[in-house]
Every structure is written in C-alpha cells, then in structure tokens.
Amino acid sequence: MNRRKLEERFFKTLMLLSLLVVMGCLIMIVGTVMWRALPALNLAMLTEIPKGGYYLGKEGGILNAIVGSLYLAGGGTLLATLLGLPIALYVHFCAARRYANLVRLAMDVLWGVPSIVYGAFGFTIMLWLGMRASLLGGIITLALLELPIVVRGMDESIALVPAALREASYALGATRLETAGRVVIRQALPGLLTAVLLAFGRGIGDAASVLFTAGYTDRLPDSLFSPAASLPLAVFFQLGTPFPAVQDRAYVAALVLTVIVLVVVLIARQLGKRLARFIVR
Amino acid sequence: MRLKAGRRAREMATRWAMGLVTLAASWLVVWITLALALRAWPILSAQPLDELLLSNTWHPAQGMFGYFPFIMGTLWVTLLAMLIAIPVCLLVAIYLAEYAPARLYQPLKPLIDLAAGIPSVVYGVWGVLAVVPIVQWLAVSGPGHWWGDFFLFGASNPTGYSVLAGGVVLAIMVFPVIISVAEDVIRAVPQGLREASLALGATRWQTVKHVILRRAAPGVIAAIVLGFSRAFGETMAVLMVVGNVPQVPRSLFDPAYPLTALIANNYGEMMSIPLYDAALMGAALILLLVVLVFNVGARLVLQRLTCWE
C-alpha cells in the first residue's frame, strides 16, 4: 500500500472518529439530562409552583417557569412574526436588490449578536421607559432576538416560490402586494411556519436575554407588567442551590426545556414536508 | 393599465409602512450600539480607555473598573474552544459533504440541526454534571500529579470549574454552527473541479486537500469566524462551568471570569454603586463591537460566495 492510500485511510479514520466524538457528545448531553431528570419527574413537578421560594423550598414544581416560558416565547414569537413578515415581503417585493442584500446582511449580523447584549439593550430601553422587569419587557427583548431568525427563514422560503407564479399573478393585473399576500404567502406557508417555529425554539431556550428583562418569580404572571419566570433561568438558579430536592427541579426544567425545543424543531421539519404537498409547482 | 385610486392608495400605504419597519429593523444593530455606548459613556469618559482595558483591578465599590481579567477570561475560554472545535468540525464537515453515503447522511444531518437548537443552559447542565467532575479528576487525583506545574497545566484549582471545562462545553456548543456552515460551503464547490482532480488520478483526500479546501477556504474561514463569535458571546453555558474568579488565568485548570459572565452575574447590584452600571454596559459594548467586526466580515465573505439570487 503506497503513501497516498495510507494518507487517505488515515484521514478517513480521523473523520469518522470526529463524527463519533460530535455525535457522542450530543447523545451524552441529552442522555445526562434525562438520567438526572427522569427519576425526579412526577406530575406535581409539572403542575405546581415552587413552595417556600424557588431557591430554598423543597416542595412544589416548576409550573411557574413552564407557563412563564410559554408566555415569553409565545409573545416574543408573535411580535417577531408581526414585524418579520412585512420585512421579508418588503425585501422581495419592493426593495431594490442592493438594498435587499443590505437588509439581509443587517439581519445576518443581528443573528450573531450575543443574547446577553440583547438583554442589556432591552434593559436599557426599559430603564428609559421607566419599566420594571416584566413579562412585556421579556417579550420585547425576545422579539428582537428572534427577529433575524424569522426574517431570514421567511426570506429563504419566499425565494423558493417559482417566479412564474408571481408573473402569472402580475399578468392578471394584481399589484405587487396583492401578489405577495394572496399568492406568494400561501405558496411559502410551510417555510414561513418553519421559520416561526425555529424562532420560537431559539426564544424559549434563551436565558441571558430574559435574565435582565423578565425577572424571576415563584408566581404565575397575571399581567403583562408582572415579572415572569422562565425555564432556562429555572435551570440556572435552581442548579446553584445545595439542596438536592431543588436541584431536581433544575434537572426537570432542563428536561422539559429540551423536550419542548426538540418537539418544536421536529414539528417544524415535519410541517415543512407535510404542507409542501399542497404547493403548486 | 391604471389602478383605481383606492387600490393604489392602499398599495402605496402598505408599501410605505413595510418600508418603514424594514428600515427601522435594519438599523437595529446601530440602535443597540448607540444605546449601549450612551449608557457606557460615564465610565468611558471617567477613565482613559487603555486603563479601562488593561487594568487588572476590579473593585466597583472603590470605583476601580479594569476589564483586563475579564477580557483575558473570555479570550482563554473562546480560543481553547476554537482549538478543540476547528479540527473536529472541519473533519466532520468534509466527511458529510464529500464522503458520507446517503443512508448515513440522511439521519445525521437533521441530528446536527437539532443539536444547534438545544438551549445553552442544557449544555451548561451537562457541563456541570459531566465535564466539571472529569476536569476535577484530571486536576486533583489523576494525571495532575505527574504534570505538576508544567506550562499551561498547573493544577492549582481543585474544583474543576475552570477554563478547560468552559472551553470544552463551548466547543461542543459551536460544533453544529461550524459544521453546518462549513458543509454548505464545501458542497458549493463546483462538481467539475472534483471530477477533474479525480480524473488526474488524485485520491479523494488529495482532492479535498489540494482542490476543495483551497477553493472553499474563504467560506471555511467564515464558518470558523461565525463559530468564534458565537462562542465569544455565549453566556449561560460558560457562566455555569468556568468558576467566575476575576483573575487572569495562567493555566487550563484555573478559573476564569469571561465578560458575558461578568454582566450576567452582576446585573442585580449594578444600580446601587455609581458607575457600576456604566461599567457593565461597557462590557456589553466591548462584546458587541468584537462580535460585529467578526460577523460583518464573515457574512460579507459568505454573501459573496453563495451569491444571493
């Protein structure tokens, strides 16, 4: 066997080893969380709020964090979608190409901004507006964090709509926005929903941005202006206590969070495939 | 053909509204930078920049704010993470793009995408449960004895919460980011180049080494830079495993205190001490500016490579 073959063999082995390392780590992460959380998982954990303080009290569960997280990420995703859809449509239907690419660049750069910076920015805005840490503050911050994901995802799915469909619509006398609203959105719908779900997944898992803006509390949020707990922060705060019973809540919160995110991402992928059947090609 | 006035007005009004939202959103990066700069201004004007960036002392109560230990903490952890992640990710990306048979690729690809969605706190929990104990074992009972104080391996910190733990957790967090971008870039290399190289009798690895990687180099570098800036700004996972002691680390087993952790840990009391909040916002500004520079560069390269529309 000559040197080239040996080299080929060597690097192929190295690649397979790396693949094994990457996959092994990912499986281990989910496995470790499940191994710690499953023994602690019970109905009370999911349906009760913590009793005697989330940091010290050993009774109760993480309902406050589950509800808070769903409110935060749900509200944030709704807001991000309301802002993001017009942007994605504008980029495709109204903007000149140079400007469109500039907007895309801006969104890609926003995507890379660390979530703690969003948190600090949201906190600054809230200070100026005189708001305290609240559900609303968290929702706004998460919406900003999710915006680039929504826009770029929608942008890419709109780009996949065949130009002939648009042209047919124009030929019938529809304006650009009529075409956008009645033809293109329907065609791109699976892709649009996928983008929204992925943004939700990112939003619900993000801790650093809600740390400043949404606060943390044992109670369920009763208005937009009351603070709200969230799953990532439930993990973070409760893992730091010396009490195993409280740490169990952290593990369960991590498991619930992982399951929500994985389910949402899987639904997003399936939805993309399922709805694609109805698309005119 | 003329449109009826009402229909035309609606079209124009909607277009204007959408244009306005787009304009506001595309300037969002600038708004964020300005807001942070404005909030950080008191500290920036109170102390000269070199002192702020290079001073070692962090005593908020005495009005002493030196970012140096935190900047070094961030750099140590991030660079270590990249050192681990780059070779592994490139090998995996090459394998997925060039070697993997379809029946292996089909299930692997979605798994990697899923991994990109796992929240950072979950990586952090795994770090605390799995990585920290291993690092602790390495430092205390295991090989820590015989490598003693050798260069980067001085085992002075017996807790396991260290640069090494942070770097490992971060590396694993950026795996999916680097792999998926690098794989796309490698896939985008024209098929003809591959065929020409193989036709000349090159092995597949020689083709990868001499043709594909050369052609894909800018994109691969962009992928690495994206991974770097992701790691640079990551907060929660690092915060949970890195130890958070404000000192310049001197060994892999020393604790560190990255900028992100500094902000996240102290936001609670920052309003109670003068200049403290400005100092923390300044830290956020540093993070943002570094990430922006890297990101804009990487994105411009990728934009040119993938050539939108």
Descriptive key words:
heterodimer; A: 281 residues; mainly alpha; MetI-like fold; 76% helix; B: 309 residues; two-stranded antiparallel ribbon; 2 strands; flat
Helix and strand run of chain A: HHHHHHHHHHH
**DSSP helix count of chain A?**
11
| Main sheet overview of chain A | none
CATH architecture of chain B: Orthogonal Bundle
Using the coordinates shown, work out and report the CATH topology of chain B.
MetI-like fold
The beta-strand count of chain B equals: 2
The CATH homologous superfamily of chain A: MetI-like
Describe this structure in words.
- The complex is a heterodimer of chains A (281) and B (309).
- By secondary structure, chain A is mainly alpha-helical.
- Chain A has eleven helices and no strands.
- Chain A has helices at residues 3-37, 43-47, 63-93, 97-112, 115-129, 135-159, 163-171, 176-205, 208-213, 231-239, 244-275.
- In chain A, α3 (63-93) crosses α10 (231-239) and α7 runs antiparallel to α8.
- The longest helix of chain A is centred in the first third of the chain and has 35 residues, at 3-37.
- Chain B has 309 residues and is mainly alpha-helical.
- Chain B is built from 13 helices and two strands, in the order αααββαααααααααα.
- Chain B has a two-stranded antiparallel sheet.
- In chain B, a hairpin with a 4-residue loop joins β1 and β2.
- In chain B, α2 runs antiparallel to α13, α6 crosses α8 and α8 packs across α10.
- The interface between A and B is large, with 87 and 87 residues.
